[in-house]
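Agenda item 2: FE2/S2 (inorganic) cluster complex prediction
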Amino acid sequence: MERTTITVRDDGSLRASGPVDVVDATGARWPLEEGKPVFLCRCGHSASKPFCDGSHNRESFRSAPRAEGEPGA
Ligand code: FES
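Presented output:
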């Protein structure tokens, strides 16, 4: 089974690759192109939330976490 990978991009979005659906709070799906990665906003400035629109560059968003320690710790 193919896995979904979410990459936390330095100073930018979350890149989801592999089989992925993005749904809203009601469960409705955004139509996505099969096989293409999805870029989700994590800076809070996108006008196209939950998707990244590049606003993190204009806002000089800075975050470069590394996979160290326990999640949420
Ligand atoms: S991460 Fe790109 S607009 Fe927020």
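Discussion summary: The helical segments are 55-58.
Owner for follow-up: CH.
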